[in-house]
Design brief:
Helix content: 25-40%
CATH superfamily of the largest domain: P-loop containing nucleotide triphosphate hydrolases
CATH topology of the largest domain: Rossmann fold
Bound molecules: adenosine-5'-triphosphate, magnesium ion
Number of helices: 5
CATH architecture of the largest domain: 3-Layer(aba) Sandwich
Distance between the termini: 35 Å
Mean pLDDT: 94
Order of helices and strands: EEHEEHEHHHE
Largest sheet: 4 strands, antiparallel
Oligomer: single chain
Number of domains: 2
Structural class: alpha+beta
Radius of gyration: 17 Å
Strand content: 15-25%
Shape: globular
Number of strands: 6
Low-confidence stretches: none
Strand order of the largest sheet: 2-1-3-4
């Protein structure tokens, strides 16, 4: 049996095409990491060391320059795996503003579920439950952009919990 998350000799660089010639910043230089189902893993490193970059490689926002990342056996480089991977691995971003998509809290939490084709009654149930879990149920009809940073993070977490992923990636969980 392979690990739930398998990272093999992963290399990743950002390329700034606006510069002439394009400037390449090599961030991940040969990462190997296996994470099993049920494991709870923290990645520590100084600012700019590549923690967020690595997290984004796990849910296929960043694709390997070389090496490979597998989620439940699915290669992140295969485009057909994109949606199934994002349903398995939910990510709460470092900056919650990047995650807000709707103008009402409960619609924001429901957004991904609608895209996943979940039944409306089930969406209602999951959204209410997730908002109660993070203590934001009273804010369900508020505008997300008017919430505090911590409240936005709670709403972002609710959106991920509601999807019932197998794994949650929390970027800067202590925030
Ligand atoms: N979109 C981007 N384009 C170009 N370079 C980037 C981009 N995002 C990050 N970088 C660079 O990649 C490196 C790693 O950044 P990353 O955000 O992964 O670090 P981090 O460990 O999450 O840092 P922090 O602790 O500050 O959150 C940094 O040098 C950063 O400047
Ligand atoms: Mg970061």
């Amino acid at each position: 049996m392979s690990s739930f998350i398998e990272i093999k000799d992963l290399h990743f660089s950002y390329v700034n095409e606006l510069e002439e010639p394009p400037v390449k910043t090599e961030v991940l230089k040969g990462i190997n990491l296996n994470i099993e189902k049920g494991e709870f893993v923290a990645v520590l490193g100084h600012n700019g060391s590549g923690k967020s970059t690595l997290a984004k490689c796990i849910n296929a926002i960043n694709l390997p320059e070389s090496g490979a990342v597998y989620v439940n056996g699915m290669d992140t480089l295969d485009e057909n795996n994109l949606l199934p991977i994002r349903e398995k691995v939910g990510m709460v971003f470092q900056n919650p503003d990047n995650q807000i998509v709707a103008t009402i809290v409960e619609e924001d939490v429901a957004f991904a579920l609608e895209n996943m084709g979940v039944e409306p009654n089930e969406i209602r149930r999951r959204v209410d439950e997730a908002l109660k879990t993070v203590g934001m149920y009273e804010y369900r009809l508020h505008a997300p952009h008017k919430l505090s940073g911590g409240q936005k993070q709670r709403v972002a977490i609710a959106g991920i919990i509601a999807m019932k992923p197998d794994c949650i990636l929390l970027d800067e969980p202590t925030a």
